[in-house]
Amino acid sequence: MTATRGTAGRRTRKVVVGLILGFGVGACLWGSVFVYLKALGEGALPSESRIPEVPAGATVVSRDKGCGSGGCWWELLVEPPAGQSPEELERRMGLTGMQHRAPTLFDPGSIYIATDTFQGRLRISVGYD
Can you give the pLDDT at residue 74? Predict the structure, then answer.
């Protein structure tokens, strides 16, 4: 009976050690992406999943990548639905001027979302802080 307990105990230890090592490797990879974004990633763009969703009725007229001193960003130009102003669309999307959003599990960089009106449309810029 003790031989079975010993085998089960070793198997449990191996599973626990494997889980700890797997978690450690995952944390190192996540951390290296974070360091890359902060130290070397001036040309890095946030994941497209970080771009706010455009509500039904509004139309994305253009979706571009821009770069300048200090980094790169996504820029969307959105046509509001008929009868709605760009400011109303901005409020409907829950955006106001400049916002900062925390890192996510799959994108470990803080982002900003900036909005303004341009030629009767809503311009949305999304980039790393």
Answer: 94
The 10 Å CB-count burial string (b at 16+, else e) for 52-62 is bebeeebeeee
Residues 93 and 55 sit within 8 Å (Cβ to Cβ): yes
Report the alpha-carbon distance of residue 37 to residue 28 in Å, rounded: 14
Q: Alpha-carbon distance 99 to 105, whole Å? A: 19
Per residue in 79-124, pLDDT (tens digit) is: 999 999 999 999 999 998 899 999 888 787 889 999 999 999 999 9
Residue type, 119: Q
Residue 5 DSSP symbol:
H
Is residue 115 classed as helix, strand or coil in its secondary structure? Answer: strand
Q: Is the pTM higher than 0.85?
A: no
Of 15, 126, 5, 4, give the one whose Cα is nearest residue 64.
126
